[in-house]
Structures are given as C-alpha cells and as structure tokens.
Amino acid sequence: MKSHETLDLIEQITRLDGTKYMEISNMVQNGRAELAAERGFIKEVRILQLNIPHSEHVINYENYINENFEMPDESMDHFEEWTKTPEMEKEVSMILKENHVG
Question: Please, which residues have CB within 8 angstroms of residue 80's CB and are 6 or more apart in sequence?
Fold first, then answer.
C-alpha cells in the first residue's frame, strides 16, 4: 500500500559507513529513522530544519515518494534509503537551496 505522506522537514542521515545525506521527510519518518538508528540499521539521524514551505519542489518530491515507497511500520527489520532518479535529485537540491541548507 502506497503512502500519502506530507513532507515538511529536512534531516541528515548518517549511514553505517559514516557517509551522510540529506532527506526531505516528516516527523513520522524521522521517528522511523530514530528507531533504525537504535536498532543499528543507520548510525544517526538529525533534524536540520522543521516546517519547510510546501513549495512546488517539495510537492514534486512528495508525489514521487508517495508513488514509489511504502512507509515502514515499527516492525521494520532494515532501513530503506529512498533512491532518487536524477530528476528527483534535482528536486531535493532545489529544496535544500530554497531552505538555505547544505
């Protein structure tokens, strides 16, 4: 079942190998990432900015995420990094730029 998430924050996720990436997320997903960190699936997650504006770029990325990924429940046994198409990489870059992050 696909999700209908509203994305409204920017977080930084640290993978087990120490590399980091920025993700556009929400409080529920941030909670799942915190749980993933506690379970050792990722190293760390931290919120960089809350309540980002719901811009055209956020809406485009939100639609992509909702169409292509399912939100995990608390029984998750791994952390799924949302893979991005080159177009969605550009959308995320624009979201970071318009929010003065990264």
Answer: 69, 72
